[in-house]
């Protein structure tokens, strides 16, 4: 993820309005939402939209990139915040589940715009996954050091399990599935040898 370039205040406000409108319109209308609809929802003209995002693909990628950046920033804040490390990890994993469940249509729109040969995953997806794993590592390490998460569970495994939970069933079930998953990643005390 490349940090966004510096912009004039009005240009930055327009860009933020376009990103928010794009996410809302895509979630409401799906992959067929038009750029005209997005510009209208943002309250800007088409020329302003194209000045910021030359193609539909770059707009959708920017929306998704912003969502990933927000998740990574949250993980960073939680990993240095005072508080119980297991609880901090849980807060963030819930944010990840919400992100995945709320980004289904956006992800479909992104993939529809990217025509990679032979079903190959676009490189941006690998970059986003890497950013998430790097952001999660300190949270997981703190939770493991505190004994709140199994020591034999690595970041990639935890993120794969969390992603699977978020994608299983319908979005309303994701919270419950995450609770069940987290019961399985908490270390168990050794059984009493006297029993």
TrEMBL record:
This is TetR/AcrR family transcriptional regulator. It comes from Catenulispora yoronensis. Residues 34-53 bind DNA. PANTHER family: HTH-TYPE TRANSCRIPTIONAL REGULATOR BETI (PTHR30055:SF234), HTH-TYPE TRANSCRIPTIONAL REGULATOR RUTR (PTHR30055). It comes from the Bacteria. Gene3D superfamilies: Tetracycline Repressor, domain 2 (1.10.357.10). Keywords: DNA-binding, Transcription, Transcription regulation. InterPro entries: Homeodomain-like_sf (IPR009057), HTH-type_TetR-like_transc_reg (IPR050109), HTH_TetR (IPR001647), Tet_transcr_reg_TetR-rel_C_sf (IPR036271), TetR_SbtR-like_C (IPR049445). The keyword Repressor does not apply. Residues 12-71 form the HTH tetR-type domain. Pfam families: TetR_C_43, TetR_N.
